Amino acid sequence: MQPEAPVAGTPLLEVRQLAVNFGGIRALRDVHLDVREGEFVALIGANGAGKTTTLKAILNSVEIARGEIRFRGRSTVGIATHHLVRMGIGVVPEGRRVFPASSVIENLELGALERTPKGEAGAIMTNVFDLFPVLKDRRTQMAGSLSGGEQQMLAMGRALMGKPDLLLLDEPSMGLAPKFVDRIFEILAGLRNTKTTILLIEQNALMSLEIADRAFVIDQGKTIMSGKASDLIDDPKIAGAYLGRSDEQISHAD
Amino acid sequence: MGRLNPLGLAVIIAAIVIPIFLSEYALHLMIMVVIFAILTLSLNLISGYGGLISLGHAGFFLIGSYTSALLSVYQGWPFWLSAPMAILLTATSGLLLGFPALRWSGHFLAVITIAFGSIAQLLSINWVFLTNGIDGVAPILRPYLPGIDLTSNLNYYYFVLICLAFIVYLMIRLVASGFGRALKAIKDDETAAACMGIDVRITKVSAFVISAALAGFAGALYAHYIRFLNPDSFSLDVSIRIFMMMIIGGTGSIAGSILGSFVVYVLPEVLRPLQDYYYLIWGVIVIVVMLFLPGGLISLGSVVRARLAERKDRADQKIVSTEAQP
Fold first, then answer.
1. Count of domains in chain B?
2. In this structure, what CATH number is given to the domain that contains residue B167?
3. A81, A87, A103, A167: best to mutate for the B interface, most B CBs within 10 A
4. Do the domain assignments include residue B125?
5. What is the chain A residue with the closest CA to B202?
6. Boundaries of domain holding B17
7. Closest residue on chain B to A84 (Cα)
8. Domain range holding A99?
9. At residue A14, what are phi and psi to the nearest 5 degrees?
10. What is the pLDDT of residues A122-153, one digit of tens each?
11. In this predicted model, what pLDDT tens digit does every residue of A219-243 receive, in sequence order?
């Protein structure tokens, strides 16, 4: 193992040589990534590359075959998902998973339940409503009656209610109308400016690279590239494989 | 349950005043309704709010009844000590049954809880040394309360009514608490609940423990009311009856639990003179409620109001469209 290079800002989250097996099938072979305090990191890759499995491994909801995951320098092995959340990892799960039979406010309150003292929840909710005005308009509505995009915003607001030190977002643009995809990325870019530490897992590589500080690219359960997002966006390999552009288009892009 | 509406207030006043004028038999029915209301509330906590099916609540009811009865009859314990012991012991059995509930849900949990109820009943039949088997336990004394004669059925009715009021208050607080909200979140989506930092295991097991304790308390109230226990009173039928009370009254509703207990306990008695047609009519009523009021009888008011509003909208539209015609 390499000695740790002293970097400015110790990694808040560190994943090394991660391997995960799913019933005899190797879902992850060798994934590594790290997220430093205040950073916006994107994890991109094609469908089935292992993005969601990586997230599940971080949250300890799948068994790890090999490798190491550290949150604030501490190994997460054996720490249940809800404990990790209480330790400061906020989660916006794949497919949003809002509580459909509860109102918008009740959903947000659940986000604060185990993390935020009662006295502070109101102030945070005001911030969330500033960030997502539509949630304020719909605050008494049942979450199940919201549109997909609104539910996504609710899931994000709900995670923010817990004042997470690290926010994990799993495919927030999945299944949304283009208008809402743009809106979600605008909000993510806004969160970046608030210095919220974010790990964004996305299939939409181009939009993710446009707003992230750094990115990791995984393919077939392996981290194959990493670096500054602004560098990766111009990398011809990335452009061809994930951005759906040919080299020609890149040269004409600017 | 929000603010108390006039109808709720009327029901409370009726529950206090009317029994004074009731016959002994009708008073007996009312006492049983109150005891079953506590059982239904207890089931509603895990099923209605927590989404965990239990068809074994007669088992908790049995353990509570027998614990209090045996301690009272053979050890001479007063009700005020034997009842807390009954609560403690049923809470412990709830803890034991709570762990399988973590692994299984839905039909599997239903079968496991049926098995639990059956085992409890079989033990009460065959563990003759402890329970006196099918000969039963008697005579169980009514609780002693200075100044109030609880051997009077009317006084005992008020006693169980106060117990019910206390449990309703407890349930309202519980449902609104962080625990209650966590339980509801787990019912909706376990994974999402864990992502909120909710400890799914602890919450579910706690719900089972509290539910069992309440059913055990209902058992103690029953034993010291009926004064004679035998295993027949705790069959699977009783578990199913409690389940029906919850469904027919309104799943996830405190007022619904009480209404359901009243309807399911009293209606068959009212229908009894119909003799052969009794089961048929009772069956039809149950099916109609299930089909048209999935939220139970307690949702009748809001369903009717919604229908009327719909009809009014349509009528208004008709007026507008006829006016629009030249």
1. 1
2. 1.10.3470
3. A81
4. yes
5. A82
6. 6-278
7. B197
8. 95-164
9. -140, 125
10. 999 999 999 999 999 999 999 999 999 999 99
11. 999 999 999 998 998 888 877 777 6
